[in-house]
Amino acid sequence: MARVLLIDKDPALYDDVREALLPLGVEAFAATTGERGLDSFRQCRPDLVLLDADLPDISGVDVCRSIRSSSPLPVLFVSSLGGDSDVIAGLDAGADGYLVKPVARRVLQSRVGTALRHLGRARGERVPAQRYGGLVIDRLAAEVSLHGRSVRLAPSERLLLFALSAAPDRVFSRKELLNVIAETAAEVNPRNVDSCVKRLRLKLGESRGAPGFIETVRGGGYRFRGSYGGGVER
Fold first, then answer.
1. 104-117 average pLDDT score
2. What SS3 string covers the chain?
3. Which CATH superfamily is domain 3-122 in?
4. Which end of the chain, C or N, has fewer beta carbons within 10 A?
5. pLDDT-derived band of residue 109, with 50, 70 and 90 as boundaries?
6. What is the pLDDT of residues 142-186, one digit of tens each?
7. What local confidence, expressed as pLDDT, does residue 234 receive?
């Protein structure tokens, strides 16, 4: 599982980033100052850093320079400082990209996914797909297949499946899943989650009354049954 470090003075942003990156199967860490961020960078050894330019102790540009002096790992600025001089300073410090807040969830997912793919290629690594029996989930390629055949999923269905399967057997509430698919829905309504699950089950070959990959937890929400497909194979 890839590890992403968020260095941002706003602790409330962590939950938003964690939820946004969940469909990618990414583990997120957070630090609210530059110094703590550098300590976390050395300790947790992330694969990618999301960095605010406006930190309470030292500037994000200085943090980026410090990281870049010892590591080639991707650094993406995510900041409310969006002037030309801010963007240029961040890129000149060695950042791989600069996003100005507010950032759409799907944009963040795309940029992080692309950066991690490039990192895997640079390392000569192939990010393995997750296999649950006949179901294969390739997060970074955004592809799903069942018994060797490609499964065409709508964006909301793919995000939902990726989020659920990122934490097999964990129960996700409808509210959590609604946040995952919110940007793909024309209307934010908890019923969208149930409708999305119904369509996804059909595409995964599940029939009414028969157990499948996605289980309804009464009074709780939904969970992905990794054991249904025989467990994870890599």
1. 86
2. CCEEEEECCCCCHHHHHHHHHHHHCCEEEEECCHHHHHHHHHHHCCCEEEECCCCCCCCHHHHHHHHHHHCCCCEEEEECCCCHHHHHHHHHCCCCEEEECCCCHHHHHHHHHHHHHHHHHHCCCCCCCEEECCEEEECCCCEEEECCEECCCCHHHHHHHHHHHHCCCCCECHHHHHHHHHHHCCCCCCHHHHHHHHHHHHHCCCCCCCCCCEEEECCCEEEECHHHHCCEEC
3. Response regulator (3.40.50.2300)
4. C
5. confident
6. 889 999 999 999 988 998 999 899 888 889 998 888 888 876 655
7. 44
Specify the fold of 130-233. Answer: Arc Repressor Mutant, subunit A (1.10.10)
